[in-house]
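Format notes (please read before filing issues)

Several people have asked whether sequences and structure tokens are stored in separate files. They are not. Every record keeps both together, in the order shown below: the sequence lines, then the token lines. Line labels are part of the format and must not be stripped during preprocessing.
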Amino acid sequence: MSRIAGRFQALAEEGRAALVAYVVAGDPHPDVTVALLHDLVDAGADILELGIPFSDPMAEGPVIQLAHERALAHDTSLGDALQMVREFRRDDPDTPVLFMGYANPVERMGYAAFADAAYAAGVDALLTVDLPPEEVAGINEELRRVGMDNIFLVAPTTPAERVGRIVAEASGFIYCVSLKGVTGAGHLDTEDVARRVEAIRARSGLPVAVGFGIKDARSAGEIAAVADGVVVGSAVVDAAAGALRDGGDHAAARAAAKALLADIRGGIDAAARAGVAS
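Then the structure lines:
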């Protein structure tokens, strides 16, 4: 059983939703990323999602686009992200880590070389935003060879018949995009999200995690009540960036991100307690 499958199974047995925390490798500085990952686990993250810096992050809103720019200003590469995971694994062999990024860096490295390097570093899964299910045979073959999961997005605009194609190729969990738009957008409609989560569950036995637009404990708790996992990215990235904008140092940025995530963890766990009580 993969780390991701094991984590979701353990949380399901506890009646809790997973908290998936996203940051960009190299933001706010490459020297900070590993410590920040540990901070997020300490704050309650169950799974870590590490963004691979890219010059055209088309799925991202302004907050995460700026994080990619900051990381690229420090020349943070896919190779650097792999080294960060290797360092993280020295002290944390258990928390699942997935890479989220775009096809170009992986294709440049080569699917087999990437799978070997990612597995050796301790990466558990890959989410490639711009690689559709019709084109994943090559990367899926290599990921499966080393026991890594391939995570796919299901958007509000994804036709029902295409959802079946996606879930047939996916493993680990399904990432349900909560709303139209880019990361960091607002206007969550929990009832609509609940309907789409159930539609995905009808086609797949994989856990369903929901992301985009989840900013605080309240919104996280609402989504946790209808999904297996909650993905938080822009809010965490902006908390760290905000501390720097206010004149703080990297320690302050880490502390701000950790505090926000701990509050979100509290919202998720409160939703679980409310569900048991009802």
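For reference, the curators noted about this record: The beta strands are 18-24, 47-51, 97-101, 125-128, 149-154, 174-177, 208-211, 229-232. The first strand starts at residue 18 and ends at 24.
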